[in-house]
Amino acid sequence: MSAQRPLELILSRNLLSSLSTPGLLVGEGGKLLFFNEAAGAFLGRSFEDATGLDADQWTAEFGPLNPSGDPIPYEDIPATEALRQRVPFHGQFAINASGQHRPIEVTAIPIVAPDESTAAMVLFWPTDGKPIHAHPAHLADHLDDNGGTV
Amino acid sequence: MKLKVWGARGSIPAPGPETMIYGGNTSCIEVTLSDDSKLILDAGTGIRQLGMAMTAADQPVNILLTHLHMDHIQGFMFFGPVFSPESEITVWGPASPEASLRDRIARYISAPLAPVEVRELPSLLTFHEADALEWNIGPARVRAQAVNHRGPTLGYRIEDNGTVLTYIPDHEPGLGAPLASVEDEWISGFDLARDATLLVHDCQYTDTEYQNHLGWGHCPVSDALDFVRRTNPERVLLFHHDPLHSDDFLDGLGNDASTRWQELGGAADEILMAKERLELDLDQLPAPQAVGAAAGNGQRPRSRA
Ligand SMILES: [Zn+2]
Ligand SMILES: [Zn+2]
């Protein structure tokens, strides 16, 4: 049998892919399982580029960052322990998004599958009032759809 | 492994002159295993007549419920063997955080909806929650897994002597993300259905009807065929017919599904329509006819798109 994802995760992914709020799914050990187009636009990376990043890879690239601007190791992120205890988390961080430091708020919800594996659905949004720019890949799709004009 | 359909209808019984061929009874399938013992898939109204056809030799009885929507349990209270003290009946079904399987079924088999209570039924009744479980029933290995419907719902994969029957009667795997856009591991029901000898699967709606039923928990023809294409069973029995669909309509829907399957490169007889009293011997299914001309390469339409 292949390792089909538990239904809870499949539904979470399908929900996230329909949302305009940036969101991602983190699996066991912090592996990045999925992020939606809004997250891609905000972070400056499409999911296809970032599929399967390990916890230290995505924390090195995106953060969250400590006050001196360095990435916080995955195990030290306050959300990590809360989710491991199967408790939702809400907090504020700074992250690296599209090459800029941006303040965000984060809500994370644990997803516990029947096999007891724990993942998390994470929603986040910038709090500095600056807009999220469309990711170039999405813009290209849009241009194709419209014969080259937006 | 043998199968007999006692109810192929979804949602609500649909008896009448316009449904004589496909039948009006709701979901119920009798499975005969290699040692002649029986499994029953769902307890829709079809189970009433199955109960009338059963004998003492069919004991003990195992009923696998996919979920507790009425069209899958309504026949339970009219299933003769539950009223016999000689019967030993085990009911398997989905767990819910809210109440036990027994208590949830008892909401239907209790006043004012029913004249009896579960505790009054004279048979020896046992209830088991079957989420994410694999277990043996007689010679069969049974696997249950949650699938995308409305509320806690299971699909089943039953393996006996190398033959595999997969039963997912209520399923909307394409909700939220087109099947063509996601990898196998992100498709609800994928592991249950993969390479089965026979897949019994939801195909309640035409593609046009589905536009007004998004999120209702059922499949349009195109998603059913996409799911088949991805999971590669040898044969498919399209199931859970909409109560509004007459025999003529279902003939048309079946022809359409079959034509589209051939256009994808499949063989016409790989796609079957479930009809009440249809019997199939899964170990004796004839080899599929030549594949459709459209693909032209002799390959079955297995594709990740
Ligand atoms: Zn149903
Ligand atoms: Zn249902």
Please describe what this structure looks like.
- The complex is a heterodimer of chains A (150) and B (305).
- Chain A is 31% helix and 26% strand.
- Chain A has 150 residues and is an alpha+beta fold.
- Chain A has one domain: Beta-Lactamase, CATH 3.30.450.
- In chain A, strands 2-1-5-4-3 form a five-stranded antiparallel β-sheet.
- In chain A, a hairpin with a 2-residue loop joins strand 3 (89-97) and strand 4 (100-112).
- Mean pLDDT of chain A is 85; it is low at 136-150.
- Chain B has one domain (2-289): Metallo-beta-lactamase, Chain A (4-Layer Sandwich), CATH 3.60.15.
- Helix content of chain B is 18%, strand content 24%.
- In chain B, the strands form two sheets. A seven-stranded mixed β-sheet of chain B has the order 6-5-4-3-2-1-14. Chain B has a seven-stranded mixed β-sheet with strand order 7-8-9-10-11-12-13, with helices on one face.
- The two termini of chain B are 33 Å apart.
- Chain A binds chain B through residues 1-8, 10-11, 13-15, 17-18, 113-115, and chain B through 131-132, 145-148, 175-177, 182, 184-188, 190-191, 194.
Which strand order does the major sheet of chain B show? 6-5-4-3-2-1-14
Task: Considering residues with a beta carbon less than 8 A from a beta carbon on another chain, report the largest interface and each chain's count.
Answer: A-B, 18 and 18 residues
What is the CATH class name of chain B?
Alpha Beta
Summing up helix and strand content along with how strands pair, one would put the structural category of chain A as alpha+beta
Radius of gyration of chain A, Cα only, in angstroms? Answer: 16 Å
CATH topology of chain B: Metallo-beta-lactamase, Chain A
Number of domains of chain B: 1
Structural class of chain B: alpha/beta
Element-level helix/strand string of chain A: HEEHHHHEEEH
The tally of helices of chain A reads 6
Major sheet summary line of chain B: 7 strands, mixed
Which percent range describes the beta-strand content of chain B? 15-25%
Relative strand content of chain A: 25-35%
CATH-assigned fold name of chain A: Beta-Lactamase
* Overall average pLDDT of chain A: 85
Count of discrete structural domains of chain A: 1
Q: Portion of residues in helices of chain A?
A: 25-40%
- By CATH's scheme, which homologous superfamily of chain B applies? Ribonuclease Z/Hydroxyacylglutathione hydrolase-like
The shape of chain A is globular
Q: Unreliable stretches of chain A, pLDDT < 50, 5 or more residues? A: 136-150
